[in-house]
Amino acid sequence: MAARAAPASDPARSRGRRLPEPPAPTRSEFQRDRDRIIHSTAFRRLVYKTQVFLNHEGDLFRTRLTHSLEVAQLGRSIARSLGLDEDLVEAIALAHDLGHTPFGHAGQDVLDDCMHEHGGFEHNLQSLRVVDHLEQRYPDFDGLNLCFETREGILKHCSRRHAVVIEAIEPGGIATRFIHGGQPSLEAQLCNLADEVAYNAHDVDDGVRSGLIELEQLLEVDLVREHWQSARDAHPGLAGKRLLFETIRRMLSAQVYDIIDATSAALAEARPADADAVRHAAKPLLCFSPEMRARSTALKRFLFANLYRHPQVQSTRARAEQVLRDLFAAYTADAAQMPADFADRPDRERACADYIAGMTDRFAIREHQRLTGRSLF
């Protein structure tokens, strides 16, 4: 393992928790955060939340949980090579999708529309709400009371209007960079990139497995074609799913090595003295090379056009949107249809959004059928 890099986050120098707690005798502060996330209710629910394909469409497709685990694995591997804090990377990776709705991005778009007059809905902000407020596991506080550095990484994106609200409550805190510019920690930057690498790779796998895209189509993409050819050259006669798996493995390795090399070069040039110096950098220091960035973007565009916009995926999306619109309408009309801890809240629309966002796909489908008498799936 590489020695701790100077600009890495140091749990002994954390900016701390919103509510101070005594240190744990055997774990660092970032280890405690990771453990709290793993034991949370929201984390367990990820196993039944959609990535691209609904949970009931096949047992081997990725879910939000398996995606989060893959991001954590990639993140830890890269962090170890760069001398970053692996526990912080893992904590951010495991928590980054806690606020995702059922039915993937379709659910986020519906809730944002339903909440248009009530502050909107952003899944990254919802992930922060989960760890700051919605989890109820501890006697002394709501949420998980995570460290600043973990919360900073969870808030990957944030609109300016929401950042202003957070900044008023927490001056100079996790939303400052969205108002005044700046970057998050290297560990947070790493999770952003590992997230992209992971979903590009597993969506290739799931897309081919589903039959919605063909390997021959994917060979139009430089990143796929190069590693498909190198896999065939190294293993003549290799075909079928083993060829696909070997192609994806080589793609992942190439991107990981590129991130390590490009980031090492960027850090050598910028020479940030510590983690706070990273936050004042003009641009992210954890990065792809320009060539790999272009290749990754081309793959992302291919998947958007050929998988995410595939008619079969779109058909599922339309039904998912209807389920959530109907649920939101039913709960706002009759809050008593929700559990008491949501029904009794004065902010009814936000309570409805919180309740729906926490649902798994299959629970949302069951609730919709209970409330409307209709089955859309």
UniProtKB/TrEMBL annotation:
<feature type="compositionally biased region" description="Low complexity">
    <location>
        <begin position="1"/>
        <end position="11"/>
    </location>
</feature>
<dbReference type="Pfam" id="PF01966">
    <property type="entry name" value="HD"/>
</dbReference>
<keyword id="KW-0378">Hydrolase</keyword>
<dbReference type="InterPro" id="IPR023023">
    <property type="entry name" value="dNTPase_2"/>
</dbReference>
<dbReference type="InterPro" id="IPR006261">
    <property type="entry name" value="dGTPase"/>
</dbReference>
<feature type="domain" description="HD">
    <location>
        <begin position="64"/>
        <end position="200"/>
    </location>
</feature>
<protein>
    <recommendedName>
        <fullName>Deoxyguanosinetriphosphate triphosphohydrolase-like protein</fullName>
    </recommendedName>
</protein>
<dbReference type="Pfam" id="PF13286">
    <property type="entry name" value="HD_assoc"/>
</dbReference>
<comment type="similarity">
    <text>Belongs to the dGTPase family. Type 2 subfamily.</text>
</comment>
<dbReference type="InterPro" id="IPR026875">
    <property type="entry name" value="PHydrolase_assoc_dom"/>
</dbReference>
<dbReference type="InterPro" id="IPR050135">
    <property type="entry name" value="dGTPase-like"/>
</dbReference>
<dbReference type="InterPro" id="IPR003607">
    <property type="entry name" value="HD/PDEase_dom"/>
</dbReference>
<feature type="region of interest" description="Disordered">
    <location>
        <begin position="1"/>
        <end position="33"/>
    </location>
</feature>
<dbReference type="InterPro" id="IPR006674">
    <property type="entry name" value="HD_domain"/>
</dbReference>
